[in-house]
Amino acid sequence: MADLADINPAPFISVIIPCYNEEKFLPSLLEDILRQDYPKSLTEVMIIDGGSKDRSREIISGFSEKYPYIHLLDNSKRYVPFALNEGIRKSKGEVIIRLDAHARYPENYFSCLVHYLYELKADNVGGVWNTLPGNNSLSAQAIASAVSSPFGVGNAHYRFEVKHARIVDTVPYGCYRKEVFDKIGYFDEDLLRNQDDEFNARLIKNGGVIYLVPDVKIDYYARSSVKSLMKMFCQYGLFKPLVARKLGKAVTLRQFIPPLFVLFISLFLFAGIFIRIIFYTWLAGISLYLIADLLFSAKIAGESGKWKLFFFLPWIFFLVHCSYGYGFLAGIWKFFITGSKKYKPSSTR
Fold first, then answer.
1. How many domains is the chain partitioned into structurally?
2. Between vectors from CA 185 to CA 80 and to CA 64, what angle results, nearest 5°?
């Protein structure tokens, strides 16, 4: 296990949390922060709120009155990269730890991350997601299962169990050396989504090293409705081409599979109306996809012992793939063909 005593002296840490309408998750998040075994005298927590319309600010203010190291900051521009950069600019720590309100963290979360950051001589470290349903409905349980399946989201290592610390291209949230931001700049504010992907790719491009560590576990709450899930994956897909344009290359090859799938099912179906061989090709491709979809759905439902999930999972997998693929194609149109640089999603999450 990680031992903070190995680091002498222990660094001052700045914890940065973007927030917008998170009253459902903030109480448990703040309780997790209070339980951390990292010295409170070496911690500052900055929650950067984008003008929440619910009780978020009231909840944060109540905690900050009792615990002076917890601070409420304003994000007049509302979106996540602005919140992150505001927090970094005002931070005093040698280490920057980003948190998300939609997650639960173990009491040794800060100390483990700091330990591994120094032990591995890394520039960024992060932990493994344990994806939980947003509520108790069958659809929410199916969503959580789909977004933690390789068939649903590809080979993003942090979504699955790993046995040993390993170098990766990205981690959830992240624990960074402050000097990294002085060296390569802050999060790109054009990227209202996927800003982590671009920053981590830029970090690696400049010689940085990112580690995923299995000792660090994060309970992440997936989206609770199909509509919010589709919107999220559509926006993830939308900003991927802009990330690629800024970096001058694609971040990963797996990101091209959903847009190619969407092009296949739409263009081949249209062409198949006129050309029989193309229709049969489309039919064969769709059949192979459906077989894979049903097999993965049955496997997940069987392993969970909840066979009712089988009636939700095939549709959720399909909608995740199509939402991401459609968003990616829309991003190509917007950021490559029309030359736009920015796009404001309808939600900050």
1. 1
2. 45
